[in-house]
Amino acid sequence: MCQLVTPATTVVHAIDINCSVAKAFDFLRDVQQWLPWAMPQAQAVLPLPLGQWLVKTRSGLAKLRPRFNQALGTLEYELVAAAKTWRVPIRLVATRTGCYLAATFVKPVHLTAEAFAHRMQHTATALHILKLVLEQD
Q1: Inter-CA distances, 50 with 65, 75, 111, Å
Q2: Please, which residues have CB within 8 angstroms of residue 109's CB and are 6 or more apart in sequence?
Q3: Which CATH number fits domain 2-134: 3.30.530.20, 3.40.630.30, 2.60.40.1180, 3.90.960.10?
Q4: pLDDT > 70? residue 127
Q5: How far, in Å, CA of 44 to CA of 15, rounded?
Q6: CB distance 89 to 103 below 8 Å
Q7: Strand 10-17's sheet: what is its strand order?
Q8: pLDDT tens digits for 36-72?
């Protein structure tokens, strides 16, 4: 797994996964399947119109807006809560042995550096779990 940190407090987590892009895409596209490992603090998920989801977190209610483009291998999750927005673009690329997943995280202005670093540690762990799940037969 690779992690790149830039001066703008952007972190890119990247991982090679021994499964097809289609399998990884299908898993990440299913919000109810994806959310527990990506946002373990989420307490409830309810579908809303237009493919959006209502998510209950420790901080209150938030709206999750997933966007998918399977042809390009891109996914983006946008979480909007109390005028705060968190976007996570994800890119999947086919490799000889499966796929390469890269997720980009930009520290929101309202989040402290320590809180962002803590979330990035959780993200690294979550991506390792995702790899294990997707590599199962």
Answers
A1: 9, 16, 29
A2: none
A3: 3.30.530.20
A4: yes
A5: 28
A6: yes
A7: 2-6, 10-17, 98-106, 84-95, 74-81, 60-69, 53-57, 44-47
A8: 777 777 777 899 999 899 999 878 899 999 999 998 8
Mean pLDDT of the chain: 86
In this prediction the pTM is 0.82
